[in-house]
Amino acid sequence: MLTKILLYLVAIGFGVFFGLYMSAGIGWVFVYVFAAAPIFSLIITLIIKYRRRVTLSVDIDKTMLYKRETATLRVTVRNRSFFPIPAIKVKLIAPKGLEQDGSEEYCVLTVSPRSEAVVEVRYKAAVWGVYQVGAENAYLHDFMGFFRFSMPCADGIGEVKVFPDVPEIPGDAPLLRSAAEAAKFSDDNEETKENDGVPRFGGMPGYTHKEYAEGDPIRRINWKLSSKRDKYMVRLDDEIESIQQTIVLDACGGENVLENERAVEGMLAAALGLLKCGFESTVLCRFDGVFTEFEITDPADVASLQTKMAEFRFAEGNYKGERIPLGVLSEKGSSKGILLYTSLFDDRLDGEIDAAMEQGITSAVISSDSSRVGTAYQVWRLCEDHSAELVMA
Questions:
Q1: Which of 186, 285, 336, 381 is the most exposed place for a label (fewest CB within 10 A)?
Q2: Around Cβ 130, how many Cβ atoms within 10 Å?
Q3: Could you tell me which residues are beta bridge partners of residue 249?
Q4: Per-residue CA distances from 303 to 163, 173, 190 (Å)
């Protein structure tokens, strides 16, 4: 702004010099024109603004994205006046989890009389979460660039949800083997066993199976055996009831967005991995201040949870509520271990893990937090590729 004023004053100075020492008539005409230009520029700009002949709108073509998908933001200015619009400068919101084509913080639009101008900005979903996109503010500038006026923007800010991935982890991954071995089975009746030759985790024999037929309960599909035989196999023994594995996502997250995302995706990967190995699970996540249960009995449940997790928010740093839902676990009669996914393994979480232990609930902690390792029954480090390595047992 200061540079523009200085150049303007220099131009008037040249006009004065020309009028005094070279050609008085022409020189002074230049001076008068330059002096009057800001006034005319301001008047025309005020007419454009207050007669409301110009509208600015922002819209985005997609509001829900999977990672690596793109959405297009459209900034549109419509001019219904007889005057051209000198410039409308729009400052765009720069969400951290969406990669913008180019690095422009602003877009500038000039519009001819009775026409419109459109600028498109493409965003690529890079990190899970919910992001605000659109126009942070917009200003109408006069022709000289000396004055600016705030412009209203219809639907200036929109929300884009990015779904987390559900990574594939092998069924023989150490974490899944450990979780499966912890999921105990009631096998008192010897008649429920048979020589399928399909061992379960821990070397225990399998149960009687048959090929899936319409009407059979999906929750009894043995996914591991089905993948080996290339057809769906169903457990026949009604007296053998699997104890569901419980997976808990810590209500608090750290400051590292990527570590938070890794904890969410690791939880989804574990639910799917256990399901493919024949184990159902219950996932507990905090929504709107309350822990919500999600029963994972078939792949569609994992897909549904993946969609729901786009709305998940880790609690803020001043969150005082529980991070492990001990009340819910106790009501469920949980006296077994849980898989606890976290991206903030701090002293407070250690305290809640100890409190859970006193109630007979052991925690196998899977942490994406790179800053420390706490104490628990087991501690696993969640790597960037969503594999996990045991660091404390």
A1: 186
A2: 16
A3: 341
A4: 10, 21, 37
- Exposure pattern of 46-69 as b/e (b: 16+ CB <10 Å)? eebbeeebbebbbebeeeebebee
**C-alpha distance from residue 131 to each of 22, 76, 94, 134, 158 (Å):** 62, 21, 9, 10, 8
d(CA 350, CA 353): 5
CB 271 within 8 A of CB 341: no
176 touches 270 (CB < 8 A): yes
Assess contact for 284 and 325: CB atoms under 8 A.
Answer: yes
**Residue length of the chain:** 393
Are 232 and 222 contacting, i.e. CB atoms less than 8 angstroms apart? Answer: no
Calpha distance 233→245 (Å, rounded):
21
Strands 338-342 and 281-287: unpaired
- As a whole number of angstroms, the distance between CA 128 and CA 264 comes to 9
Pull the structure tokens for residue 343. Answer: 């991206």
How many Cα neighbours within 13 Å face the side chain of 122? 6
Q: Degrees (nearest 5) of the Cα angle 121, 131, 268?
A: 120
pLDDT in tens, 301-330: 999 999 999 999 998 767 888 999 988 888
Question: Containing H/E element for 4?
Answer: helix 2-21
Structure-token pair, residue 180: 């499966």
**Each residue of 181-201: pLDDT tens digit?**
665 433 333 333 333 433 333
pLDDT score of 349 more than 80: yes
Look up the pTM and report it: 0.72
Provide the token pair at 356. 């859970």
Q: What angle do CA 318, 322, 324 make, to 5 degrees?
A: 130
